[in-house]
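PROTOCOL LOG
Step 1. Enter all chains and additional molecules of the complex.
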Amino acid sequence: MHQPDRVSLREVAPRDGLQNEPPVPTADKIRLIDALSRTGLSRIEAVSFVSPKAVPQMADAAEVWAAVEKHSGIRYSALAPNRKGVERALAAGFTAVEVVVSASETHNRANVGRSVAESLAELPDICALAREHLASVEVIIATSFGCPFEGDIDPAQVARIVEAAEAAGAGRVAFGDTTGMGTPRRVTDLLDAVGTGLPMLMHFHDTRGTALANLLTALDRGVTEFDASVGGIGGCPFAPGATGNVATEEVVHMLHDMGVATGIDLDALIRTAGLAQEIVSRPLESGVLRAGPRTSLSPKP
Amino acid sequence: MHQPDRVSLREVAPRDGLQNEPPVPTADKIRLIDALSRTGLSRIEAVSFVSPKAVPQMADAAEVWAAVEKHSGIRYSALAPNRKGVERALAAGFTAVEVVVSASETHNRANVGRSVAESLAELPDICALAREHLASVEVIIATSFGCPFEGDIDPAQVARIVEAAEAAGAGRVAFGDTTGMGTPRRVTDLLDAVGTGLPMLMHFHDTRGTALANLLTALDRGVTEFDASVGGIGGCPFAPGATGNVATEEVVHMLHDMGVATGIDLDALIRTAGLAQEIVSRPLESGVLRAGPRTSLSPKP
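Step 2. Run joint prediction.
Step 3. Record the structure below.
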């Protein structure tokens, strides 16, 4: 199996994680981002600019962003569902924005209240606006590996969205396994179907235990960028109590033991997973948080 | 990546699972084994013959085995730590026994109260005894991917135990990731070091999220036999609350979506995971049990 020397991880706990947990105080969000900024992570999805009515968890996005320490070596990004959100992100000073569109028609309507075509139609304008602000645009394609309402998603549909994103002027694409329906077969099928020169990132959930197997499959196919959420925060919205985002410390733990560099200090990351656990006030499911890394030994009996 | 057409799974919940949970009634053990026998599984590790003082959970092994329905298409096995246990297993009528020895000296002393050399010295006699009873012997090498007391295990040490097992007349070997220290790199290193004509099985724990990534790595290297525990029962003895055995339904769920046959009915298996959850009286961590398979869709909004 092929493996790269280095992988680039984007930490999504402050946004994707906290957006799928009961609301937490603004000060805790700032504490979490600041702690993450000190772990060696080079990319952090900090906030989203969404309707505060639909997503009260992110109502304080501008306030959070104004208060966090900005480290020069870290690329902070904000997610937006539409042009209005992108405008707010740019106004807040972000130079990296993510726009989300679902591969599934039903999921796109549930998630952003309009058709896939309507989401795509807005992209050229969003990309032009971002360019004016010298900002980059990544298109995140949700439900890329399956939709909880529609079931399997034809990889050709994902490929069409990638083409539309590229034509619109987006600089990057990401594939979201929104409810953990991905398997190694789905990763392979998607990569067989998608042809693009754009940088690609994959976002896996561990809902059904496959996150690290999917990541390994993607590595073998040359993908070197992944999302992950410290402590695995961000539950699965369709299965209360079930695991959502893959835990960053589980990804780093496996990659480092394989000799794949991430630039991240695993011990600092595990301590930050502990902070995340404190903030969301529930026991998190990350195995590396609970059991410690494989190098943490028990006293000899 | 290489993948086989078919994988053979051995279900270990009745033994390895229940041995690492608080004791449950004999009738529940029988119910669990009988339910597993109706899922299409072709191999079940049913009980162990160990000291009832050291392992009260298995004190009723002979009673359980006498009462369960024996299906002609299923290979039932029993585990034993030494010759005395093997004698009891053969007396109870088992024709497949597993003898456990650790790759780690410290773990072997903690687990079976003697040195690795002492465990190995007994093997030829055990294999001869089993042959007299027309029974097969599998040597399970615990801590093959790391030891919670000693840390990394030299794959050459595992290879030496395999050689000793083969020389003693064992018919099969298994590699146990006893406390979930395995990663794809450890699987590769082990398979690079071990050269044997014996059938090989791998036993992964999901303590740190790597179980299915490890399994995928082993598949790519030609391994087609794995242990798994329905519902993931059998905690991690060194980290209270942490995940132990990989859940059988998570393995089957991923393999079937990849087009790899197991002969198992996933729905029946998930129902049996629900029964296992009832029996151990705690919420289990299996993602496929909690969230359902990827094919189980939500109503359209």
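Step 4. Note key features.
The first helix of chain A runs from residue 13 to 19.
Chain A touches chain B through 58 residues (CB under 8 Å).
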